[in-house]
Design brief:
mainly alpha
Length: 322
């Protein structure tokens, strides 16, 4: 089967999964009840959550730009970099998980005249690694804060091991020993792929001399996740959900990890399943959890609107120049 046909089939399956799972959960949650909950939302809390979205998007843009090599930052104006970031987040809305948006960002950056492809890919990979590590750290800390988790030593151990592995895996990228082993294994790959992978690995190894930047970006990633948790909490307050803030810190990071999996389009369906499943543990009814998931997903889409505007204006300018 041609690659384009396979890719089209995979996309159709993801869309079907997202639609089917969302409709199933909506039916299970009682559509009428969900509509009443959503229509009765307090707009003041919704407006406050929108304000936090603007902050977290700016912080996300900063952390990626901070990971670019100093020579790239000296030769590239800040506005083109911001455009690349926001356009890639918008395009990633229509692609599986976060992988599509990352690929678009790396490709657009590598199209710049003074940026090598390996550097572009390495910056996106490092940004994603630090983001996921921070998310797992937040998930572990939030889960440990819940009393029922502390009472289960096996679950506590699993959380601690996962968080430690995430941090160790991130900083292993900076290890010379790991790099040597990886280069040895790359020798089994076809020459073109091996050469490209080695170039990306060399670009990642350059972060060993920029540990201060890596730590700063990791801290920024933690702050981004705190903001995203607070957004969900504010939406919950707007829906009159009385779950404690600790429940949001325990559940939202895990839901965000599920949404990152490339099995759906932009987390549609998987986010609804995550909110309904996890918030049931905090005593939140299905209708309220489903309404919260829809508002949270919509909030993320709203944060991608600036990228859509930049994408549309660029396409219009390109069409006018023909």
């Amino acid at each position: 089967m041609p690659y384009s046909s396979t890719r089209g089939t995979g996309r159709a399956l993801r869309i079907a999964l997202a639609a089917g799972l969302t409709l199933l959960l909506l039916w299970w949650s009682d559509p009428g009840h969900v509509a009443r909950v959503a229509l009765g939302a307090d707009w003041r809390w919704l407006a406050a959550s929108i304000g936090l979205v603007t902050v977290d998007r700016g912080l996300m843009a900063w952390r990626w730009i901070a990971l670019l090599p100093p020579d790239v930052l000296r030769q590239t104006a800040i506005w083109p970099l911001l455009r690349i970031f926001f356009v890639s987040t918008f395009v990633g809305t229509f692609l599986p998980g976060s992988v599509g948006g990352d690929a678009v960002r790396a490709w657009q950056l590598s199209s710049s005249p003074n940026v090598r492809g390996a550097i572009a890919v390495a910056s996106v990979v490092m940004d994603r690694l630090l983001g996921v590590a921070a998310l797992i750290m937040m998930a572990g800390a939030g889960a440990l804060a819940m009393g029922q988790v502390r009472d289960d030593p096996r679950l506590t151990l699993a959380i601690l091991v996962t968080a430690a592995a995430a941090i160790a895996g991130t900083f292993a990228v900076l290890s010379e020993r790991v790099a040597v082993v990886a280069l040895r294994w790359m020798g089994w790959l076809p020459e073109a792929i091996s050469r490209g992978a080695a170039g990306v690995l060399d670009a990642l190894r350059a972060y060993r001399a920029r540990r201060g930047v890596v730590v700063s970006v990791l801290a920024a990633s933690v702050l981004v996740n705190v903001l995203r948790i607070l957004q969900a909490w504010m939406l919950g307050r707007g829906l009159s959900i009385d779950a404690p803030l600790g429940a949001y810190f325990a559940f939202v990071p895990v839901i965000l990890l599920i949404m990152l999996l490339p099995i759906s389009i932009n987390g549609i369906g998987t986010s609804q399943a995550g909110f309904v499943f996890f918030f049931a543990r905090a005593g939140v009814p299905e209708a309220e959890s489903f309404a919260l998931s829809v508002l949270y997903l919509g909030l993320g889409l709203l944060g991608n609107v600036p990228g859509g505007f930049l994408f549309a204006t660029r396409q219009k300018a390109a069409a006018a120049g023909r």
